[in-house]
């Protein structure tokens, strides 16, 4: 069985999502289907079709989470330190061309979230940064061509 690295917080979020889907969300969609059925003709009932579609999504996500969670390998990032980029690191980089500074956290593929500046360890940026140190310049593949970035800080917390 393939193991997936993840932070403890990421695992908690997945377990909470699974709990919500199996409880509140599943029950709510069952009620919505029953209510839509009560309106009669199902072939032209948009509410029924929407509820069935939502049920399909919920059941698919439950199956996905039930497959992922047992395969998680929690990495305790509190025991990692230093200035070398590894899993769980908060990495600050500066684009050498545009001078834009950004900070990303390198996390497991199932907890990556660009809204929270968390990137997957399998992403091209994370792959380029892993093993490098503060002060290193790294070539990162990008859709518009490779970009050079300098690592200005590496933190674990």
Key traits:
two-stranded parallel sheet, Tscrpt_elong_fac_GreA/B, single chain, alpha/beta, 5-stranded mixed beta sheet, Helix Hairpins, 157 residues, Transcription elongation factor GreA, 38% helix, Chitinase A, domain 3, DNA binding, RNA polymerase binding, transcription
Q: How would the blueprint of this fold be written?
A:
Elements: E1 4-6, H1 8-37, H2 46-68, E2 72-74, E3 90-95, E4 101-107, E5 118-120, H3 124-129, E6 137-140, E7 147-155
Parallel strand pairs: 1-2, 4-5
Antiparallel strand pairs: 3-4, 3-7, 6-7
Helix pairs in contact: 1-2
InterPro entries: GreA/GreB_C_sf, TF_GreA/GreB_CS, Tscrpt_elong_fac_GreA, Tscrpt_elong_fac_GreA/B, Tscrpt_elong_fac_GreA/B_C, Tscrpt_elong_fac_GreA/B_fam, Tscrpt_elong_fac_GreA/B_N, Tscrpt_elong_fac_GreA/B_N_sf
Protein name: Transcription elongation factor GreA
Pfam families: GreA_GreB, GreA_GreB_N
What does this structure look like?
By secondary structure, this protein is an alpha/beta fold. The chain has 2 domains: 4-74, Orthogonal Bundle (Helix Hairpins), CATH 1.10.287.180; 77-155, Chitinase A, domain 3, CATH 3.10.50.30. It has 3 helices and 7 strands. The chain has helices at residues 8-37, 46-68, 124-129; strands at 4-6, 72-74, 90-95, 101-107, 118-120, 137-140, 147-155. The protein has a 5-stranded mixed sheet with strand order 5-4-3-7-6. Strand 6 and strand 7 (147-155) form a beta hairpin. The protein starts with a strand and ends with a strand.
């Amino acid at each position: 069985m393939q193991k997936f690295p993840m932070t403890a917080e990421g695992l908690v979020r997945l377990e909470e999502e699974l709990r919500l889907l199996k409880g509140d969300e599943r029950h709510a969609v069952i009620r919505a289907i029953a209510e839509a059925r009560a309106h009669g003709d199902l072939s032209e009932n948009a509410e029924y079709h929407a509820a069935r579609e939502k049920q399909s999504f919920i059941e698919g996500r439950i199956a996905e989470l039930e497959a992922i969670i047992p395969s998680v390998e929690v990495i305790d990032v509190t025991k990692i330190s230093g200035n070398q980029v590894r899993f769980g690191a908060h990495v600050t980089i500066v684009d050498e061309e545009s001078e834009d500074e950004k900070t990303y956290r390198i996390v497991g593929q199932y907890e990556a979230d660009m809204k929270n500046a968390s990137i997957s360890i399998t992403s091209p940026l994370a792959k380029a940064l892993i093993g490098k140190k503060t002060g290193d310049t790294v070539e990162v593949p990008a859709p518009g061509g490779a970009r050079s970035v300098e690592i200005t800080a590496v933190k674990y917390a």
